[in-house]
Amino acid sequence: MTTRRECEHCGGPMPITARSHARFCKPAHRAAAHRAARTVPAELTSRPRWIRRTSRKVPVTVDGAAASSTDPASWSTHRDAARSTAGAGLGFVLDGDGVVCLDLDHCLDAEGEVAGWARNVLDAVGDSTWVEVSQGGDGLHIWGYGALPHGRRITVGGGSVELYGTGRYIAVTGRTFGGTPQRLGDLQHVIDSLL
């Protein structure tokens, strides 16, 4: 039985004529993925806490074995993870060192407009830190620094925000939202206001 291969950029099926080592369904997706890889801030790419993930967000190692967000032996460097063909994309492990991610679920409509509740969160963040569009294309990941000992899921104005700082991995797309900077900023005041 042949395993269905997926494009690392769009998650769609690979053409039947694609070579066995191909990672993208078409040249435009390869170019977009390479541009996106350069947008991930150095504060993340410099840490050896990268994994691969399947299209269903199951964490795997660069060799395709099971990975864990709590087992550093299954993590890799960004370079090795980006070069791997295992799975469908990248993920970054949060290990409690102060790097946090605020995950705003389903806050973008089909035209990319931000829901009001999410706009309030983004306004509180300002232009101090990197924000990316999530894997599904309708959510946002706000990356930064803060103290967050336990993950939380909260409701904000009808929307859902997940706050993580340890023991989890986040699927990283590298698709920068708007003109946010390619650096991580302090999110503690936002975390405190949400909690």
Secondary structure: elements and pairs:
Blueprint: H1 27-37, H2 42-45, E1 50-53, E2 59-60, H3 78-83, E3 89-95, E4 99-105, H4 116-125, E5 131-133, E6 140-145, E7 152-156, E8 159-164, E9 166-172, E10 185-186, H5 188-194
Parallel strand pairs: 6-10
Antiparallel strand pairs: 1-2, 1-3, 3-9, 4-6, 4-8, 5-6, 7-8
Describe the structure.
19% of the residues lie in helices and 25% in strands. With 195 residues, it is α+β, with helices and mostly antiparallel strands. Strand 7 and strand 8 form a beta hairpin.
Computed over alpha carbons, the radius of gyration is 17 Å
Number of helices: 5
* First-to-last CA distance: 49 Å
Low-confidence region ranges:
none
User: What general form does the structure show?
Assistant: globular
| Major beta sheet summary | 6 strands, mixed
pLDDT averaged over residues: 90
| DSSP strand content | 25-35%
Determine the fraction of residues in helical runs and give it as a percent range: 10-25%
Order of helices and strands: HHEEHEEHEEEEEEH
SS elements, strand count: 10
Structural class: alpha+beta
